């Protein structure tokens, strides 16, 4: 199973965006995600 960091890097590379841009998309609910505790899946 891939780690959180690996998933984050995969998403960023696939979308060609920065960490901040990915966070903004999550904040604006423009992309789906699931959080469990302090982890984003």
Mean pLDDT over all positions: 84
Largest sheet: 2 strands, antiparallel
**Rounded radius of gyration (Å):** 10 Å
Q: Separation of termini? A: 12 Å
DSSP E strands, number: 2
Largest sheet, spatial ordering of strands: 1-2
Beta-strand fraction estimate:
5-15%
Counting helices, strands and paired strands, the structural category is: mainly alpha
> Into which percent range does the helicity of residues fall?
40-55%
Low confidence ranges: none
How many distinct folded domains? 1
Globular, elongated, flat, extended or rod-shaped: what is the shape?
globular
How many helices does DSSP assign?
A: 2
Element string (H = helix, E = strand): HHEE
Query: Oligomeric form of this entry?
Result: single chain
Overview in brief:
With 41 residues, this protein is mainly alpha-helical. The protein has helices spanning 4-15, 19-27, and strands spanning 35-36, 39-40. It has one domain (4-40).
Features:
two-stranded antiparallel ribbon; 41 residues; mainly alpha
Description of the molecule:
With 41 residues, the chain is mainly alpha-helical. It has one domain (4-40). Helices cover 51% and strands 10% of the residues. It has two helices and two strands. The chain has a two-stranded antiparallel ribbon. It is globular.
Q: How are the SSEs placed, and which strands pair?
A:
Elements lengths: L3 H12 L3 H9 L7 E2 L2 E2 L1
Antiparallel strand pairs: 1-2
């Amino acid at each position: 199973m891939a780690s959180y960091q690996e998933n984050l890097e995969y998403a960023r590379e696939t979308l060609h965006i920065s960490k901040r841009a990915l966070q903004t998309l999550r904040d604006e609910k423009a992309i789906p995600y699931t959080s469990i505790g302090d982890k984003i899946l």
